[in-house]
Amino acid sequence: ENYMNVAHVDCALNDGRTFRRYCQQVLGIPEGHIHIIEDATYGQMTEQVNWLSRVAKAYEGDARIVIYYAGHSIPNEKDGSAYLLPVDASGDNTAAAYSLNKLYAELGALNAKSVTLRVLTMKEQAGNHCNVGDPKAALDAILSWMRDLDKRDAR
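Above: the chain sequence. Below: its structure as tokens.
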């Protein structure tokens, strides 16, 4: 949410906190199994992927992994590939951003029962569902957004 070199992403922190509550209260995931990294740098993003790898290995193929990202993404102008933008990067430097292709490959290599990734960026009109201060409205908006993406992806 609090980017240093590009526009802020309204509600990203609220979305992450709301999704954490959803994971705890609806999915029943214990608090200690949930990592929420607010205003993540590239190093923090990398460390979380490494942590997921260690978790998947420890659970010997039985882990179910859910990743939710709310923030900016940027394209590589040369090939159109997408990157997640850490809070300390600029919007025109993909070398300082986290490649979605790299993330897909890393997640695909995990020895896990399932891996679910949801990426909420301004491209998906993330700002249209801003409901700070109303967790139920924020969760309803996030779930609605997720259903819309599922429909879009099923086409």
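The longest helix spans residues 135-154.
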